[in-house]
Structures are given as C-alpha cells and as structure tokens.
Amino acid sequence: MSANKPVSVNAELSYQKAPDGSIVVFLKGILNSDTITYFYKELTNLLKIEIPRKLTFNCKDITYCDTIGVSLFIKAAELARQNNYGYEITNLDKKYTQLLNLFHPDTQEAVGEVTIKETFIERPGEDSLILLADIKENITFIGQATIALLLSLLNPRKVRWKDVLVTSEKVGVNAFGIIALVNFLVGLVISFQSAIPLEKYGGTIFVADLLVLSTFRELGPLMTAIVVNGRSGSAFAAEIGTMKVNEEVDALTTMGLDPIKFLVVPKIIASLIMIPILTVFGNLFALIGGLVVMITLGFPPVAYLNEIVSAASYVDFLGGLFKSVFFAVIIAGVGCLEGLKTQKGPAAVGDSTTSAVVRGIILIILFDGIFGVLFYYLGI
Amino acid sequence: MEDKMEDREVIISVKNFTAAYGANVIIDNISFDVYKGEIFVILGGSGCGKSTVLKHMIGLYPPASGQIIIEGEDITAVEDEKKIGILKKIGVSYQSGALFGSMTALENIMLPMEEFTNITTDMRKLIAKMKLEIVGLKGSENKLPSELSGGMIKRVALARAMALDPEILFLDEPSAGLDPITSAELDQLIINLAKNLHITFVIVTHELASIYTIADRVIMLDKKVKKIVATGNPQYLRDNSKDPWVRQFFNREAEVQTAN
Ligand SMILES: Nc1ncnc2c1ncn2[C@@H]1O[C@H](COP(=O)(O)OP(=O)(O)OP(=O)(O)O)[C@@H](O)[C@H]1O
Ligand SMILES: [Mg+2]
C-alpha cells in the first residue's frame, strides 16, 4: 500500500468508504514504536484526501498495541475533534482498551508552549530591576562578610583554622609553580621587547628600571591576581555552588551554623595570607626573567641588580603589595558570593563558576585602575 | 499462582553473581531468575546492595564474577551493537531520578525516542505527553527538573524509562517520596502494564503496602551474609518464613535484641 511500511514487520492499514461519507479503517498487526510512523502517515494521507463524516477504527486484527501504539488513537481523536466529525473505536481487545483508558480524552490539547513575548519597554525595566537587586545582594554580602570576618578576627578561636590551612595550601602552595612561570615569562617578554627600542638610544640598562617599576607597581600584583582568580575564584564558586545544589548550605543554616562564617571566612583569610605572598614570589620571578634577558645581552648580573636597587623604592613594592591584599578580598569574596548565589541544577554550578571568574577579573582590573589614579594623586 | 512457575519463560537469569567495589564485596555469589511478565521485587535493609544489584543487572558495572543473562545474551560479555540491542529492550529509572537538568520534562522523555526511533516530532511530543499523563504529571511538560519536586522528578524519570515501551523495566525505589494516593496509582499502572503488555518489572522498593499489592515474587538481600535470605511470595514469607528477621521486615517491627 505504501513504500514506508516496514517490510519485515507485521502491520497494515486499509480502509472502506461508505456512500454516506463515513470511513472505516482496518488496523492489522502490531502497533508499537516500529510501526507507529507507518500507521500515522497512512492515516494522515487518507484524511488529507477527504474529511470523512465519521471515522471508525476496526481493531479486530490488532495483535499487539503498547502505549506508543495507543497514541495513534489519541491523535485520530484530536483530528476528529478539530474537524468536527464523529469518531469511534471498535473491536479493540479489552486489555488494550484498559491501556487506552489511562488517557483522558483531551490529552491531545496543545501543551501551552509558554513563550511570553516581552515588549521593548518591559525588557530594560526588568533588567534594571534585576541589576538593582544584584547590587543590593552584593552590598548585603559585603556587609555580612565584613562583620563575620571582623568578629572572627576578634575571636580567633572561633575561626576554623583547619579549613584556613587546607584552603591556603590549595590557593597558595599549589599555585606556586604557575605563578612563578607566568611572572617569569612576563618579565622575560617585557624586558626583551623593551630592550629593542632602548638599545637604539644606547640605554639598554634602563630595561631594569622599566621592568622593576612596572612589575612592582602593576604587573606582579595584577598577573598573580588574575591567575589566582582563574584557579581559586572558580574553585570557591564551584565548591560552595555544589554544596548549595546539594542542600548542604541549607543544612548548615538549619544546624545554626552561619554559612558565611563557616564557608566564606576561612577562604577569605587564606586568600589574604597567600595572595600577597604569591605576589612577592611573582615579583621575584619576573625580575629573574629580566635577568636572563640582560645576561644574554651581555650585562653582568651585578650591574642589573644595582640598577634595580637604585630604580625601585620600598614604596613601589609595598604599594603593589597593598593592592594584592585588595585583590585577595575581591577574589575570595566574589568566588564565595557567586557560589552562594547558585540556583538549582547541575548547570547552575557552571554558571556560577563562569560569572565568578568574569566578575573577578573585571573587578580586579577596575580596582587596579582606581588605585593607579589614587596613587598618582597621593604622589606615591 | 505459584503452580505454573516452572513453565514460565525466564527473561533474566543471574548466575553465581558477586558484586564488589574494589576489594569491598557487597554481594557474595547469588543466583536468581526473573520470569517474563512478572513483577519481581528486590528487598533488603538500607545499604545492603539493592541498587548495586540493579545497576549490575543493566550492565552498568561488570560483576566481580558470575553472569547476568537477559533474553539469552550475557550482558556482561556483549559489546557495542549487541549491547545497545539489549539496552533498547530495557528501561531504567534511577533512585535519584537522573533527569537531564538542561532539558524540560517533555524533552527528557522525547530523548530516547529521538535516538532510537523514526517517529515524527509531533507524534513524539504526543507520546511523551501521554507518558507524563499516565504518571499523573499532566501540565508539567515544560518544567525543568530544577522546577520539579522530588516526587515529581521520580515520576518523570519513570515516564522516561517507559518512553520506548521496553520489555523490561528496572525501577529503583519508584514510589519513595510519593503520597499514598499517587503511590497507589503508580502500583495500578505497574500492574496494568505487566498484565496487558507483559512487561517485566524488576523493582527495588521498601513500601510494604506496595509490595503486597504488586509483587509476584520478592528476593530479600541481607547485608551481613551478603546473600539472598528469602525468596517467594511476600504474603507467604510474612506468615511462614523461618527467619525471624524476614518476618520482622514484613511485619515492620524493630529488631529484637535477645539477651541470652
Ligand atoms: N559507587 C560506589 N563505590 C563504592 N561503594 C559503593 C558505591 N555504591 C554503593 N557502594 C556501597 O555499596 C553498598 C550498597 O550500596 P547500595 O546503593 O547498593 O545500597 P541499597 O541497598 O540500594 O541502599 P538504599 O536502600 O539506601 O538505597 C553500600 O555499603 C555503599 O556504601
Ligand atoms: Mg539504593
């Protein structure tokens, strides 16, 4: 009867038209996932040609019909109702009737495909409301975290020092290699690139001045913060986010433990300790990168060292360190806040990690700029 | 009811099966058969290895030793195409639901049909909607798993397991967390499918009321000996088992500590 009938499978649809405009459809064989497409196509082809006065299924030759098979009857009922003709099922085996009866006659009513169209006025309004709520949430969190941190520092015995230690190891010790490598390479590249133009003016030795100032004041703290943000800010968000999804954060709250004190404070303390230390090491390795370039250019190490000591002051060094303390707060704070904001579901953890990293980097660079302006006016 | 048991066709046969996670043996050398069209229930205390047995029966983990034969094929030995052939005949709902978090309830149910059949999209939608209706979740089609309650997730998982009308359904605690009415409706659905479509059910459950209503046969696992301690009809075991622990389980009594 039709080409798309499965060859090996026992299934057949035939029909009889009566003069009064009604159609009797004979279904034969198996109605399941293998044959449903055949039956469905045959039926729609038939009904496309003409709309009957009444559609009757004769099911006496159906040998098997599962719930997928039953969908044919539900679909036919839907078509009959849409086009206002009568519809009947005859001779269906009792056991399949029981299956059919599981479904309410109006199952086929369209699933309201919920697509609420927002107007271009609603959209920006809603977005700014979300932004306001977001800002409020951030400020609340900063307040809570500051209070929790101060209280913990006033009462150091209440701090979970074991967690601080574990986090310090993860944030600091384990990051040492990559911090050293990244800063070394940045030092190397900066020195090399600046050596070429400076050589024209016969001032190659000033590479050392340029490197030490840019490293201490900007690049050391910034590169270190960005790497740690990528490593640990995301890890904080993922860890707390997973706990949120698993209702562990709720469990803490109901046990009377403040999640901020319990989860966030140790991470902030660990970051406050480790990130400045990493920055110092980062600075050192950037200078070593410069040293390598200078040696290859034929300068003795002593000349390089003397130049560095005369170019940089403690103020430059400490200013950079001061910034890294701020960066530490940003990294830990943003990571933990994004973790705590995690919604339900596994994808939510991924979203929090992403936004922790992105927001962390934006804030780090923003504050770096603010400090740059501030230091300039303070004459530092 | 037990009279003709020997004539019935064995659909799953578990032979000398041992399960272990690393060196930690959970199940030690058990054997049992499941007959076609029966509702077979696995019982036992929490942590005794029911989910472990279920996951091995569907070929998720290789057994430490022994065979699991589904319709004549050893699921532990077959690979690739043949394994997919067996997997198409079975549906599984996991203890935690295991819905895909990024898909709506309807999309979760449509996924197996998309992968394994040539059913057209509008029919897939209709069939998926029907499956949701029989688990009592009409109207939740467009909800994401994160917007569903625990019991609703269980039922969507059940609907997804039934998506392809498989021959064998493995259900890990399908009625845990459901209210008594929904739970009873689920029991009726299971009986209906077993009777009318001869679907075989392998169910892990603790709900005593449900066990008495639906189970043709149960096996009971014990954590201490790591073996099957009872097999048979639940009513019969409740009244006649020689093992006091089994009777306690079926009568819902606390363990009696005998002083002597
Ligand atoms: N993936 C796994 N790795 C290691 N050990 C496991 C793993 N899954 C389960 N176990 C251990 O196997 C034992 C049996 O676990 P299983 O989940 O099978 O129990 P169950 O009978 O289903 O319990 P419940 O009724 O609580 O669901 C437990 O002791 C558990 O610690
Ligand atoms: Mg389990």
Q: Describe it for me?
A:
The complex is a heterodimer of chains A (380) and B (260). Chain A is an alpha/beta fold and 380 residues long. Chain A has two domains: 2-107, STAS domain (Transcription Regulator spoIIAA); 138-378, no CATH class. Chain A contains twelve helices and four strands, in the order ββαβαβαααααααααα. Chain A has a four-stranded mixed sheet, covered by helices on one side. In chain A, β3, α2 and β4 (86-90) form a beta-alpha-beta unit. In chain A, α6 runs antiparallel to α7, α7 packs antiparallel against α9 and α9 crosses α11. The model of chain A is unreliable at 1-5 and 108-115 (pLDDT under 50). In chain B, β1 (10-21) and β2 form a beta hairpin. Chain B is globular and about 55 Å long. Chain B starts with 9 loop residues before the first strand and ends in a 9-residue tail after the last helix. The model of chain B has no long low-confidence stretch (mean pLDDT 87). The chains are: A alpha/beta (380), B alpha/beta (260). The A-B interface holds A 32-34, 36-37, 40, 66-68, 70-71, 74-75, 95-96, 98-99, 102-104, 107-108, 111-114, 343-348 and B 101-102, 106, 113, 116-120, 123, 125-127, 129-131, 133-134, 138, 141-142, 144-146, 162, 164-165, 189, 192, 195-197. The structure holds adenosine-5'-triphosphate and magnesium ion (MG). Adenosine-5'-triphosphate binds next to α1 of chain B.
